[in-house]
Structures are given as structure tokens and as C-alpha cells.
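Please go through the sequence line and C-alpha cell line underneath and see whether the fold suits the sequence. See right below:
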Amino acid sequence: MKKSELTRGEIGDFYWGYINLIPEDAELIDTLKKNTDEILEFLKTIPGEKWRYSYAAGKWSVLEIVQHLIDTERIFQYRALCFARNESKSLPGFDHDAYVLNSSSERREPDELLKEFRAVRESGIFLFKSFTDQMLGVKGMMNDMTATARAIGFIMAGHALHHKDIITNRYL
């Protein structure tokens, strides 16, 4: 399934900001695999003293950003699974600031977070590989908007690229 096959009705406008970071001809599974490697290789280049740095009061550290990526991956994978399995209930949103605040990510080491990101993303790749084309296109409700599993897969990759750009421009 290619990004170019997505339609506007598959996800709310906010999420297109992430999806649009992915090339039009990108294929979902290949994108998730390449994105995993790209993000991890980038994170490995961050100097040790920058991991606990935040560029302004109230802004997340790099450790917290990576924990946010991990948490968000898990939530989006759950949502995609629910839609692929025809969940009829609307799925709630989540307060990403509260998740970061309560993550205790500052006690963790960068290498540990990188391993966890890889494991969570690889689990997601297996999940998306298991979906049929029909499952990928099933619509569900999340955070008061319609979404499909396939749109969520591209959001995951774009979300990671979005945070890579933030780290590059504000932390390094």
C-alpha cells in the first residue's frame, strides 16, 4: 500500500502534517523499516550532553522526546489494531504532555531508549504486515476523528521525522 493511495477522509487534517513528510510513492512497510533505521542512526549521533538538555523552560529533553516517540508508537499501533479488528467504539485521545511528565524518562539511558524504540517499531511492522488490504482500510474513530490503520502507519513514520527535525533545529 502506497502513501499516494491515501485519501483525505482517512484521517483528520492535523495528521496530514506528518503524512506529508513521507514521499508520495512510499510503500507502508518499506517506509516503516527505512524510517526505523533513519531515526535510530540519527539518534545515535546525538552527543551525550544533549540527551538531558532542553532548549527552554518547560520544553522536553531529548530523552523525553524519544520516550514520547515510544509511547506514541504504542498508542498508534493499538489504534491500528482496533480498527483492523473492526472496533466499533471510539478510541480516546491522550495527553502527550502528561505522559511525558509521568514517564520518568530522565532516569533512563539513551541506549536503553533506542533499544526500546527499535523493539516497539519492529513489533508495529509485524502488526502492519499481518493486516490484509481490507483491514488496512477499515475506518474507526480516534480522538473524535475518523482514521484508518493504513493512515496511522504513515503517521507513525512522519511523526518520528517531525521530531527528528525538531531535535536537529532546536537541540543540536
Q: What stands out?
A: The two ends are 35 Å apart (CA to CA). The first helix runs from residue 13 to 19. DSSP finds seven helices and two strands in the chain. The first strand starts at residue 139 and ends at 142.
